[in-house]
C-alpha cells in the first residue's frame, strides 16, 4: 500500500479509475519484424517503428494526464536484472543446453556479463550471431548467417495485456498459445518475483504460466475482463480454452477473490483472437461490442460449489443471455450495449481496426484509436467521453489501447 492509500497491485473492475498500468514501448523487437518473419511472429504487417513509438508515447501521455502511473516493462526488467539471483533465474529459464548445444556455456557467460539495460534490450529485442561477443562453435553456428537470431525477438511484448493479467488481489501469468510468445512470460515472472516493487508485496498468483492437465491448456490476458462486483468475464477463443478457465475459476474461488466467472465462446479465427477484440466495458453499465460475433456467443456461469465431502468444486450453468447474466452479476436491471459504428462494411472494418478494443480510464471515459470514427461517434452520442490516440501505425499491429496495457491497480465500480 502506498501513501496515497491505493493498493499497489489490485484490479477490482474494468472501469474504475485506472491508477497504475504496465506498458511496453516499441523497441528493437519491432525493428526486427520483417515481411519474411512477420507471420511466424504473429503480425499481419510490418510497422514503421519510429512513428509507432511516437503514437505509443502519445498514448502514455494521455494516461499520465489522467492521473495514471505508467510503468514500462523494459525498465522493470532491466531493474530486475540488477539482482544476480534474478539474472541467473531468467537466463536459466531462457537458455538451455538443448537449445544451444556446444556454445550454451559461453552464451550464458556472455549474457551474464552484460549490463542490465543491454541484457534486457536483447532478451526482448533479440540477439543475432553478429552481435555475439564470441564466435560460436558447432554445426548450428557453422550453418548460421550473421543475421540469424540466437535469441529471437519478442515484438508481441507491445501487447502488454496478454502475458499477465491482474484480477482482484492477484495476478494470472498466462499460458500462451503460440511459441512466438512463450518466452514473454519468463520476463513477467521475473519482474513479479524479484523486482523490489513487487517482491515483498502481498498478492496471489492465480496461475503460474504453465500448462496444466492432460491437455495443454492455454489462457491469455486479452480474454479476461474483470467486470467487477466479484465477477470475471472470460472468452473461450483461439488462444484460451476451457481447462484453463476452469482452473482460474477454482483458484479465484479458493481465496474468495471472486464469486462468479462468466465464460463465453468466440469463433476460433484470427479476426477475433481475444474477447477484447469484440467486447470491452466502457461504463459501469455499458459495453462496446461487435454484434456480429457477440450476439451469437454462448455463455456459461461458473460458481463455487462444495460437495458432500467438503471439497470445493465448480458448478457450470448455461445462461440464456450473456447480457442478462452480466446485469445480474453487476446488480443492474439491464446493461447498455453500444455497437460498432457504421454500416455493415464499416463496422467490420472498424472491428478489425480495434474499434471495440477500448481502455477505460474511469467510468464513461475511454481511450480509442482516432481512425475508428463511426464507433467513436456512436460512443460519444451515448454519453461516453472518447479520448483518441493516433492509430495509423500502432493499429497495424492488430491491438488497441486495451491490448497494449496491463492495469495493475484499478478502483472498483
UniProtKB/TrEMBL annotation:
Pathway: Amino-acid degradation; L-arginine degradation via ADI pathway; carbamoyl phosphate from L-arginine: step 1/2. The gene is arcA. The keyword Transcription does not apply. It comes from the Bacteria. The keyword Hydrolase applies. Its EC number is 3.5.3.6. It catalyses: L-arginine + H2O = L-citrulline + NH4(+). This is Arginine deiminase. PANTHER family: ARGININE DEIMINASE. Belongs to the arginine deiminase family. InterPro entries: Arg_deiminase (IPR003876). Keywords: Arginine metabolism, Cytoplasm, Hydrolase. It is found in: Cytoplasm. One of its GO terms (molecular function) is arginine deiminase activity. HAMAP family: Arg_deiminase. The active site is at 403 (amidino-cysteine intermediate).
Amino acid at each position: 500500500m502506498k501513501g496515497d492509500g491505493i493498493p499497489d497491485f489490485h484490479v477490482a473492475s474494468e472501469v474504475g479509475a485506472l491508477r497504475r498500468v504496465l506498458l511496453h514501448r516499441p523497441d528493437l523487437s519491432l525493428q526486427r519484424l520483417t515481411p519474411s518473419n512477420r507471420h511466424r511472429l504473429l503480425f499481419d504487417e510490418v510497422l514503421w517503428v519510429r512513428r509507432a513509438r511516437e503514437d505509443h508515447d502519445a498514448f502514455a501521455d494521455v494516461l499520465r494526464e489522467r492521473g495514471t502511473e505508467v510503468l514500462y516493462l523494459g525498465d522493470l526488467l532491466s531493474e530486475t536484472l540488477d539482482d544476480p539471483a534474478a539474472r541467473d533465474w531468467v537466463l536459466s529459464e531462457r537458455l538451455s543446453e538443448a537449445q544451444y548445444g556446444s556454445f550454451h556455456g559461453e552464451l550464458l557467460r556472455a549474457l551474464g556479463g552484460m549490463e542490465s539495460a543491454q541484457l534486457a534490450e536483447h532478451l526482448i529485442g533479440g540477439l543475432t550471431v553478429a552481435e555475439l561477443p564470441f564466435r560460436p562453435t558447432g554445426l548450428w553456428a557453422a550453418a548460421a548467417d550473421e543475421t540469424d537470431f540466437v535469441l529471437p525477438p519478442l515484438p508481441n511484448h507491445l501487447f502488454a495485456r496478454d502475458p499477465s493479467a491482474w484480477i482482484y488481489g492477484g495476478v494470472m501469468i498466462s499460458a500462451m498459445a503460440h511459441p512466438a510468445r512463450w518466452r514473454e512470460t519468463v520476463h513477467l515472472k521475473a519482474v513479479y518475483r524479484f523486482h523490489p516493487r513487487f517482491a515483498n508485496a502481498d498478492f496471489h498468483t492465480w496461475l503460474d504460466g504453465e500448462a496444466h492437465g492432460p491437455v495443454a491448456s492455454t489462457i491469455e490476458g486479452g480474454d479476461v475482463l474483470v467486470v467487477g462486483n466479484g465477477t470475471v468475464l472470460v472468452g473461450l477463443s483461439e488462444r484460451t480454452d476451457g481447462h484453463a478457465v476452469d482452473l482460474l475459476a477454482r483458484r479465484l474461488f479458493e481465496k474468495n477473490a471472486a464469486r462468479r466467472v462468466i465464460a463465453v465462446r468466440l469463433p476460433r479465427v484470427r479476426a477475433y483472437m481475444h474477447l477484447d477484440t469484440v467486447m470491452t466495458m466502457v461504463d459501469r453499465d455499458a459495453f462496446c461490442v461487435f454484434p456480429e460475433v457477440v450476439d451469437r456467443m454462448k455463455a456459461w456461469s461458473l460458481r463455487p460449489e462444495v460437495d458432500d465431502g467438503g471439497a470445493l468444486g465448480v458448478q457450470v450453468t448455461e445462461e440464456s443471455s450473456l447480457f442478462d447474466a452480466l446485469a445480474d452479476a453487476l446488480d443492474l436491471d439491464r446493461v447498455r450495449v453500444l455497437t460498432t459504428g457504421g454500416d455493415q462494411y464499416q463496422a467490420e472494418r472498424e472491428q478489425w481496426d480495434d474499434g471495440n478494443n477500448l481502455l477505460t480510464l474511469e467510468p464513461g471515459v475511454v481511450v480509442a484509436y482516432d481512425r475508428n470514427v463511426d464507433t467513436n461517434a456512436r460512443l460519444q452520442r451515448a454519453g461516453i467521453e472518447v479520448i483518441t490516440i493516433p492509430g495509423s501505425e500502432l493499429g497495424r499491429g492488430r491491438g488497441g489501447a486495451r491490448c497494449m496495457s496491463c492495469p495493475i491497480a484499478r478502483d472498483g465500480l
